[in-house]
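Sequence design from tokenized structure. All designs in this work follow the same two-part layout: the structure record, then the generated sequence. An example of the structure record is given first.
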């Protein structure tokens, strides 16, 4: 993909992050795209509180929607755009779903599982390593998260 296309889809993921914040969820958004056609398969934000489900991260929800749409457990023709570096759980789900490419906006030194922490895709036990890119709209995503958590701290 090119920067223009990546920015277009990341902007939609950021819209989902804003919608998550409006629901009082941690503002992380994800957009799943068929890379061959450019068609959006799923777009969502975190719903851990709403669903009373600690696994209801934006990435997981988008992957679930994508797999349902494909009628399969693997979606290798898909790219995933996320506003924050995936955690280890989400990185594992991305690998298991065989997603082709992952693009994330802001890095997450504390909870990330791609560039930080366990670096899931670099482990010998990782069966599928997607192409990764990061930094597209990273400042906007980081600012949204910072504002969200500052408001919670009072």
């Amino acid at each position: 993909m090119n920067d223009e296309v990546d920015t277009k889809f990341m902007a939609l993921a950021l819209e989902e992050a804003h919608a998550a914040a409006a629901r009082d969820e941690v503002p992380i958004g994800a957009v799943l795209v068929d890379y061959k056609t450019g068609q959006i398969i799923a777009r969502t934000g975190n719903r851990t509180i709403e669903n009373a489900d600690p696994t209801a991260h934006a990435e997981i929800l988008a992957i679930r929607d994508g797999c349902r749409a494909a009628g399969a457990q693997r979606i290798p023709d898909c790219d995933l755009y996320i506003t924050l570096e995936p955690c280890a759980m989400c990185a594992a789900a991305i690998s298991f779903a065989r997603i082709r490419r992952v693009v994330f906006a802001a890095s997450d030194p504390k909870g990330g599982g791609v560039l930080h922490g366990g670096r899931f895709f670099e482990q010998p036990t990782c069966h599928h390593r997607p192409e990764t890119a990061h930094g597209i709209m990273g400042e906007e995503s980081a600012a949204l998260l910072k504002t969200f958590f500052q408001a919670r701290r009072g």
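Strands lie at 29-34, 40-45, 78-84, 101-106, 131-134. We note this feature because it recurs in several other targets discussed in the main text.
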